[in-house]
Amino acid sequence: MKQTAVSTTLFFLLLTLLIAYAQPKDYTFYISTEGDDTNGGTLEAPFSSWERARQAVREVKQQAIEDEQPITVYFRAGTYPIESTFQLTAADSGSAAVPITYRSYSDEEVRLIGGQVIEGFEPLSNEEAQSRIPTEFHPNIYQTDLKAQGITDFGTIKPTGFTREMQPTALELFFAGEPMTLARYPNPDEWLRIASVPQQGEELINGGSDRVSRFGVPVGRHYGKFVYEGDRPDGWQSAKDIWLHGYWTHDWADSYVKVDRIDPTTKEFVLSEPHGVYGYTQNQKYYALNILEELDSPGEYYLDRETGILYFWPPASLDNNTTYVSILEEPMIRLDEPANVRIEGFILEGSRGEAIQIEGGRSNVIDNCTIRNLGSQAVTVNGGEQHGISGCTIYNVGDGGISIVGGDRKTLTPANHYAVDNHIHHYSRINKTYRAAVKLNGVGNRLAHNYIHDAPHTGVLFSGNEHLLEYNEVHDIAQETGDVGAFYIGRDWTKRGNVVRYNYFHHLHGPGLHGVMAVYLDDAASGTHIYGNVFYQSGRSAFIGGGHDNIVENNIFIDCAPSVHLDARGVGWASKYIQPDGSWQMYEKLQAVSYDQPPYRDQYPRLAGILERENPAMPDGNIIRRNISYGGQWLNLTDEVDTSRVTIENNYVLDQVPDNIDIEAGQFYPDDSILSNLNFEPIPWDSIAQRPSD
Q1: Strands, E assignment, 576-670
Q2: What is the reported pLDDT for 22?
Q3: From CA 199, how far away is CA 216, in angstroms rounded?
Q4: Positive or negative CA dihedral for 90, 94, 99, 105?
Q5: CB 129 within 8 A of CB 138
Q6: N or C: which end of the chain has fewer CB within 10 A?
Q7: SS3 of 418, please?
Q8: Reduced 3-state DSSP string for 190-248
Q9: Beta carbons of 103 and 75 less than 8 angstroms apart
Q10: How confident is the model at residue 6 (pLDDT cuts 50, 70, 90)?
Q11: Which residue has the higher pLDDT, 639 or 218?
Q12: Sign of torsion, CA 100 102 104 105?
C-alpha cells in the first residue's frame, strides 16, 4: 500500500515536470512609468527603463532562440522622456524565428518624448519685453522661466537649407500637439519680397558671363546684402539674433541666413556667411524670424537665450493643453547593426533631431508608429538589408519623412528595404526643399501603398537602380515651390531599372516658376519605366528631361498640361553641363560603375553602347505607347528632339474628358473597346486608392 502511494506520487511529480517542460516559456517583459528597475519586469511588477529591459532581454535571448519563442517588451500607457539615445546593437539581435519586439501594450497610448513639459506661465511682466512688444498685444502674452525648470541648453539656430546637411534644430515650442511659430514677420502664409540687390561685378554661379539664366532669372548677384521694402525692419535694432528664411534665387532652393546688421539709411539687410547658395535675387520671397518685436499673433513665441525667459501667445487655454519644448539632439532610438528587431506602436515626438536611425543590420522593422513634431527627419535607414518602415504616420517633421539607403550600385546587389502603408504629410516644416516624404537611394528597394500629401516641395526622391515605386497616392505637394517633381530622379545615365507603376498623382499645382511635374525624369535621367499610373490635374505629368530609354506606357492622363513631355536639353541649353568635364559629371558617373562591364553591360545592354551613339546627349530610345489622355494637352516635344529616335504609338487621345468618367470610382474607360483596341491593361484602382484611416 505504501509502495503504491509512493509510485503515485512519483507519477504525478513526473507528469507535472513533463507538462511544465512541454509548456512554452514566456519571454515577456513590461515597462511602466510607475515601475522600478529592481522589479522582475512582470505585468504586476514592471521595470521602469528601456535599459533594464534590454539587459533582461540579453539574459534570456539565447534560451528563447533555442526554445524558438519570441521576446516582447511591452510598454504600459504613459509619457516616457527620452533624455539620451536608446541604442540596440548586434548583441540585441533576434533571429528570423525569434524576433525581439519593443512595443506598446494592447491599445494603450505610449508617448516617447525627446523634450520636457513646461509650466509656470504668468502674464507678461518683463519690462524690457513690454517695451519691445506693442502694448495692444500684452494681454495675450505669457512668460515662463525655462532655466528655473532646469532647461539651460537652448541650442542654436543654424544656416540650414538647400545642399546643406540635416542638423538638429534649436529648442522649439509645442502646444496642444502642434508646433508653434518662432516670432516672425510677416505672419505665416505671407512673404516679403527682395526690393533690389546691389551688384558687384560678375559674381556668377557657374563662372559664365551671362546676366540671365535659362529661366530668365538674373544671375549676376550680390552675396552680402539686399534692400528691403518699407520701414518695418527699422524697428528691429534691439533684436540680437535675427534670421531670414527665403527662396533667395530659385523656387527650389531655400535656406536660412543670419542678419549681421540692419542699415535703416540704405534700407539694407547686411548678412552673415554662409549666404544662400545662389546669392540673392530681386523679387524673391523671404520672411524674418526670431524677433521679439514681432510676437503679435496666436501661436507665436520667442525665447530670450540670455535670461531663459520664454514668451508665448497661446492659441488656446494654457490650463487645458500640454506645453513642452524640444531638448534631445541625438536620435531617440538607434539600431546599430542588430537583426530581427521590431519597434511597434509608439508615438515619438518632441526631439530636436531624428526619431529613429537604423545603421546596418538585417530585417529590422518600424511598424505602426506615429512620428511627429520633430526638428529633423523621422526615420533614416543606412545600409544593411531588408529593413522596413510600415504602417507609420509621420507629420510635422522639420525635414523629411523616411530616408532609405541600401544596396550596392557597383554590383547591383539589392538591399530589399521597404516603406509600405505609411501616411506622410505636412513634412519639410523647417527646411522646405529636397526634404522628401521618402528618399530611396541604392539598389532594389520598394515604396508601396503610401499616402503622401501637403508639403512645400517634393514627394519622393529616388536615386539608384531597380527600385519599385508602386500603389502610392500623392497630392497637394509643391505648395510653395516650382520646377519640382512629385517623384524625382535626375542627372545620371546609369541609374536605370526603376519602375513607377500603379500610382495615383492628382491635384499638383506648384506656384513657383515651371510649376510641378508628377514623375520628373530630370536632366537626362534614363531607363525608368512609367506604367499603369493615373495622373489627374498633375501638371506636366510624365516628364522626360533629355534622357534615354525611358518607357511611358499604359497610363491614364486626365486634365494634364501636358500628359507627356520630352525634350533634348543635352543638345540645347544644357549642352555645356552634359558634355565631358561638364558640371553634371555624366561621363564620370559612367566610369564610376563600369557601365560597359558586367553586371551593367548584362543588365542594361543599351547603356553599354551609349558612347558609341552619334551624340550621347541626344535622347534616344524613349517609348510612349498605349496611353490614354483626356482633356488638357497630350504631348509636348521640344524642337530639338530627333523624332526618329523616339517611339510614339497606339495612344488614345481625346480633347475633352468624357462625361461618364468617374475618377473616384475608378471608371476611366468610356468604351470597353478602348481596352482591347489598345491592348490596355486595366488599372488596379482598388489597390491604389487605399488611404490610411488616421
Answers
A1: 622-625, 628-630, 635-637, 646-649, 652-654
A2: 46
A3: 17
A4: negative
A5: no
A6: N
A7: strand
A8: CCEECCECCCCCCCCCCCCCCCECCCCCECCCCCCEEECCCCHHHHHCCCCCCEEEECC
A9: yes
A10: low
A11: 639
A12: positive
Q: Which residues of 279-292 are buried (b: 16+ CB within 10 A; e: fewer)?
A: bbbeebbbbbbbbb
DSSP-derived 3-state class of residue 382: strand
Sole residue written with cell 518602415: 389
Length of the chain (residues): 694
Scan for cell 522626360, then name that residue.
Answer: 544
- Provide the residue ranges of all domains of the chain, joining segments of one domain with +: 26-108, 122-323, 377-688
pLDDT by residue (tens digit) across 512-521?
A: 889 999 999 9
Tell me the per-residue pLDDT of 362-374, one tens digit each, with 9 for 90 and over: 999 999 999 999 9
Q: Which three cell numbers stand for residue 313?
A: 501667445
Q: What is the pLDDT of residues 42-80, one digit of tens each?
A: 999 999 999 999 999 999 999 999 999 999 999 999 999
Q: pTM for the whole thing?
A: 0.93
pLDDT at 23 over 60: no
- Measure CA of the first residue to CA of the last residue in the chain; give whole Å: 70
Per-residue pLDDT at 548: 98
E strand map for 526-663: 528-531, 534-536, 540-545, 551-553, 556-558, 564-567, 622-625, 628-630, 635-637, 646-649, 652-654
The x, y and z cell numbers of residue 162, run together, are 538647400
Which amino acid, one-letter code, is at 658? P
